[in-house]
Amino acid sequence: MNRGNRIWIVCPVYRDVESFTILREQVLVTLEHCLRDEGGALETKFVVVDDTAGEDAEISKLDAFDDVLVITPPFNLGHQRAIVFGLRMIVPRVGDLDVVVTMDADGEDQPSDLPRMLAPVVRSPKDEKIVCVARRTKRHEPVYFRAMYLFFVVFFRALTGVSVRSGNFAAYRGHVARQMLMHPAFDVCYSSTLISFESCVRQVPCARGRRYAGRSRMSPLRLFMHGIRMLVPFTDRIAVRALTIFAVTFAAGIGLSLAVLVIRLATTSAIPGWATTAILGTLLFSFIALGNFLMLFIVFSHSRGISLAGLEDQVGRGRPGSLGLPPTGDGERDGAS
Prior knowledge:
Blueprint: E1 6-13, H1 17-38, E2 43-50, E3 68-71, H2 79-90, E4 99-102, H3 114-122, E5 131-136, H4 143-160, E6 166-173, H5 174-180, H6 191-196, E7 201-206, H7 220-231, H8 235-266, H9 273-306, H10 311-318
Parallel strand pairs: 1-2, 1-4, 2-3, 5-7
Antiparallel strand pairs: 4-6, 5-6
């Protein structure tokens, strides 16, 4: 990379300052070795999105680091939308050739994987759109979690036709961030919206690391909601598949109905009583299932997106300078919140 370019490390933090501090140290060591080998120079800027909305007193410890910028949303967003909020707040200050990296702060996205994540991005032509995402090759969760995850992968594949084995760990150029972050699906889910851009996504095999400190706050309910949100960027594909299944089911019901009618009118064969009930049940089920599925899915996707859409503009107008973004040019150093 050229001298003067920056790398922006964006992390959502929810009462996990200790883990982020360890992550920061390891990222700096990894990048120092990486850039030394390539003979380059790069300024690293960490962007912490405090997803407690200012309620975590330990966040103030990060004021001691000149390279850490804290952004505080007005309310809890969840780790996916917190990343998007942070990205949209900093993107006006990100240069086209800067590199943006998003990763979890707890250590499960390993800093040692950064060189392999960055290589396809920094070596690509300046105007090429490349998004590198980490494809998970190994996990350290309990057996029950891995079983649930495997079920979700199969379920996701069946609904969308896409295999999902990635999370928030991603890297891309500043000009790519500036263009793609306007996609409305980011308002609901960051990780799956990235993989929906299939033409520019490069998957980098990375094992999932272990948490540095503390414990995960991902409850089964939050995990379930996250899984539902991941489906939203693929609404069109899911709708097509749902309509296909409905059409096949409806056609089968009509076909069976006609067959029963022909047998009843043109022959003397007896028709089992359960046949008519089964046919009517099939037709009724196809209508009810389709209507409920589409209605619930559309309501969910719209309700989740509304709370983030335009939020960064509202906060910026309401409390100028309160997010740690001083009204200075790109040449001056950003202050920490």
